[in-house]
Amino acid sequence: MDEIARLYPCFLFKKEVDKIISYETVRKNTKLASFVKEEKKEEEKKEE
């Protein structure tokens, strides 16, 4: 029981960190995706 009590805060912290990391990754990917879309729109305009 003592072991778990000692490790639990680390576990919680890791979960929070993972959440933050995945959130940042999603945000970057979303930005990247919208950037790519904009690039494609620009290319289509040039072709017309």
Task: Give a written overview of the molecule.
By secondary structure, the chain is mainly alpha-helical. The chain has 1 helix and no strands. The protein has one helix at 2-47. The protein is rod-shaped and about 70 Å long.
SSE order and pairing:
Blueprint (H helix, E strand, L loop, with lengths): L1 H46 L1
Would you list the SSEs in sequence order as H and E?
H
Number of helices: 1
Amino-to-carboxy terminus distance = 70 Å
Which whole number gives the mean pLDDT? 84
- Please tell me what the overall shape is: rod-shaped
Rg calc: 21 Å
Structural category is mainly alpha
Largest sheet: none
Strand content: under 5%
How many runs of DSSP E, i.e. beta strands? Answer: 0
* Poorly predicted runs: none
Share of helix among residues?
over 70%
